[in-house]
Hints:
Distance between the termini: 27 Å
Amino acid sequence: MLTRRHIRVKVLQSIYALRQSNNPDLDKQEKFMFYSIEQMLDLYALTLQLLVEMRLAEEKFLKTSQKKHLATEQERNYSRSFLDNKALDLIEHSEPLNTFVENRNINYWKQDDEYVTILLKELRSQKFFKEYLKNTETTFEDDRDFLVKVFKRVIAPNEKYYEYLEDKRMTWVDDFPIVNTAIVKSLGKISEKNADALVLPELYKNEDDREYAQQLLRKTILNDEKLAGAIEGKTPNWDQDRIAELDMIILKMGISEFLYFPSIPVRATINEYLEIAKEYSTPKSSIFINGILDKLVKELTESEKIKKVGRGLR
Length: 314
């Protein structure tokens, strides 16, 4: 689920936090970085649990409505398509997911059920929901496609839901886009054979990614003077203390990848940090950073300090 770009963002945030601290401690910051990364799975699981809670709330609402003395015909003969959604059954009864939610104590919807109500009300107003309820019999593919639409059209764009997550855990704001993408992919592929793996995916693609996060943080911090020295003289119109803090960190991380990560192509490093700069720094940062990194690549290549391994890595 985790991408290299998101790992870079987490490292960037950790280095920035360390530099702002009155009592910087690399070991503690590293532990917090990994804790922050692990919270992505919490958000993923919490969101899937939200789909389950929306269905449970709808069923409870319908049972109450049908008991009314003047229940409408629609309330008495409500379609069970949503209540019997077969793809959602796999999520609700996933042992790995339920165990994870219980162990992490993150089933917040029991106490924050007002957000379930808000999203359910929004779902009921959707045309695709009304069309779905007209189907007396749905295939597994119909049910799966319906869940994707619920997430993409109702949950993900809802501002109240976003504000709730922002208030709950600040780190989730940056995790929101990548977790959303992962959920859409998982919902679109879920089946009886792969349900457990998709409902609770691996956080890292492999152990190399976790090692990469740790090494990028440590090599950038521990080689700070050397990396700053590489930048010196490459900014004729700017003293280093006038360069934006985030820009300086991004530059040092890029140089760190040039020097200490032989398997990462130079162009991939530059492209990734330019995109990060566009999102997290000033409007002109990406142009500034691109110019500095391009100069450094030429200089470090000529001095044979950049040593990449494999085809097409320069």
